[in-house]
Amino acid sequence: MSEFISFPEWLASHTQRSEQALDALLDAEATIPTRLHQAMRYAAQGGGKRIRPLLVYAAGELGDASPATLDAAATAIECIHAYSLVHDDLPCMDDDDLRRGRPTVHKAFDEATALLVGDALQTRAFEILALADCSAEVRLSMISVLAAASGSRGMAGGQAIDLENVGKKLDLSGLQQMHAMKTGALLSCAVQMGGIASHLSQAQMMHLQNYSQKLGLAFQIIDDVLDVTSDSQTLGKTAGKDAAQDKPTYVSLMGLDYARKQAQELQVEAIASLASFGSKALALKELALLMVNRGK
Amino acid sequence: MSEFISFPEWLASHTQRSEQALDALLDAEATIPTRLHQAMRYAAQGGGKRIRPLLVYAAGELGDASPATLDAAATAIECIHAYSLVHDDLPCMDDDDLRRGRPTVHKAFDEATALLVGDALQTRAFEILALADCSAEVRLSMISVLAAASGSRGMAGGQAIDLENVGKKLDLSGLQQMHAMKTGALLSCAVQMGGIASHLSQAQMMHLQNYSQKLGLAFQIIDDVLDVTSDSQTLGKTAGKDAAQDKPTYVSLMGLDYARKQAQELQVEAIASLASFGSKALALKELALLMVNRGK
C-alpha cells in the first residue's frame, strides 16, 4: 500500500482488481458446456467481500511479488472459497437458499449443476496456479499450501468435524480446532500465498503465520457474534442458523461480551505480529481492523 | 513390461502396486477427522479394475520414469476417478446404491460425508502430485494435464453435457464429444502422465495421444454394450440404467452389432499407434486388448 493512497482507496482498487482477475481467469460463459460455465461464474462472481484475495494482495506487498502471480493466487483461492460455499449450501449440507443476497447455485440452477460447479471450481483453482506466470518453485509451493489448507486436513476436514458435532457438546478447544480447519486454514493460506509470491524468508513467513492464525480465530468469533446480533439482509445470508441448528458457537460457549473481548485481543496480537514489516504491512493491518470490526 | 514376465503377471503385480501406492499416499484412517478419512479410503480402496493407474504404469515403461513418480501419478488419477464416482452416485446425480459390488459412499456413510469425500479426494490428488519426488517441471506438467482432463473442459464438463441431454436426441457426434470429455479425457490423461514421467518427446506424446483417444472411445462403446448385455453382478454396478434413464448411448444410436464392430476397429487403430515404441509398448497393447475385450 503506497503512502500516497488511503486504505479505502486501496480496498476499492484491490477489490476491483480481484474481480477483474476472476473475470480473466474463469472460462467464458460461451465455452462449452455453457450452462456449467455460466453457473461457475454465477457462483464465483456474485459479489462477496473478497477477503481472501485481499489478503493475498496485502501480503504480496511485503516483497517482490509480480502482479500476475498475485492475480493467479487471489483467483485460485477465491475459486476454492466459492466451491466450498456452493457445496455447503446444498440440501445435504446446510440447505441454504440465500447467499450473498441471491439464490444459491442449486436454487438458481439445480442440485446436480451445483455439485459440478463446486467440483470444477476446485479443479480450476489448481489449474490456474499450475499455469501461473512465475517460477516452478513458487507455483508448486502455492499449490501445496492451497491443497493442505482446503483438503481433508484443512477446510473439508473442518466441515466433517462440524457435521459430526451438530447437537453435541463440543468444548472450546474442539470448537477452535474445528474453526481453525474449516475457515482459519484458508485465511492463513491466502496470507501465505502472498508471502510465497513475495519470496519472503522463513522467519518472515513465521510472522505472517502468527498474524493469520490470530486473525482467523478473531474472524470466526466475530462471525458467530454477527450470526446472533445481525439480520439476514445485513449478512447477505441466513442469520441465526447456528442457533437454529443447535451448533456450538463461540457465543454459546463464551457468552456475547467475552467473545467480543476475545476477538479484540486477538486482533491486537495479530497486528503486533506485523511489527517487523514496518509500513509495508499497512494493508494487512488495516484488513485485520476491518475484518474484526465489521458489523460495528 | 519385461520380456521375461507374462501380461497376466504384469497385470497382477501392477494392480497390487497401485493398491499399495493408494494405501501409502492416502491419509491414515486414524488421522482426524477419522470418519472422513475412513470414508475416503472406503471410496478409493473398494476394489475396481485400476485401469487408469495401469495405463500410467504401462506408459511409464516407454522411457525413464522413476517408480515413485509413477506411483504418485497413478494414485492421483485414481483419487480423481474415485471422487467422480462418489459424486456421480449421489441422489442428485445418478442416485446409485451399488458400486463395485458394495454400498455407495452416501449409503455406507451419509450424503454430506460423500460430498466431502469427493471434494477431499480431488484435493488430495493435486497435493500428491505437487509433493511427488520428481522435477518441478514434471510435477507441474502432470498437474496441468490432470486439471485440464478433470475440470469443466474435461470430465466435469462431460458430466454437465450428459445431464443436459437426458431424454434429448443427442446425435453421434454430440455423444462422442460428451464421452470424450466425460471418460476419454481422464483415460488419455493417465497415458499422458505416464509419458510425461518418462520424459518422452513431443512426437512420442502425439503417438500416445492417438492411442489413448482411440482406446477411450472404444472403451466407452464397450461400456454401453455391457450396460445392455450384462447383469449388475457381473458389472459390479447397476446394469441397464442408461436405457432406464432414457440416455442416448452408442448402442441406441448404432445398434449392438455395429457398436461392437466399431470398438474392434478402434482397438486395432489404437494398437497401431504404438508401432514406433516396439516391445516397450507391450503392456499398453495388452491393456487395449483387455479393455475392449472385457465382458467377452
From TrEMBL, chains A, B:
Cofactor: Mg(2+)
Keyword Phosphoprotein found: no
Single GO BP term: terpenoid biosynthetic process
A GO molecular-function descriptor: metal ion binding
GO cellular component: cytoplasm
Record's keyword terms, sorted: Isoprene biosynthesis, Magnesium, Metal-binding, Transferase
InterPro entries: Isoprenoid_synthase_dom_sf, Polyprenyl_synt, Polyprenyl_synt_CS, Prenyl_diphosphate_synthase
Family to which this protein belongs: Belongs to the FPP/GGPP synthase family.
Stated name of the protein: Geranyl transferase
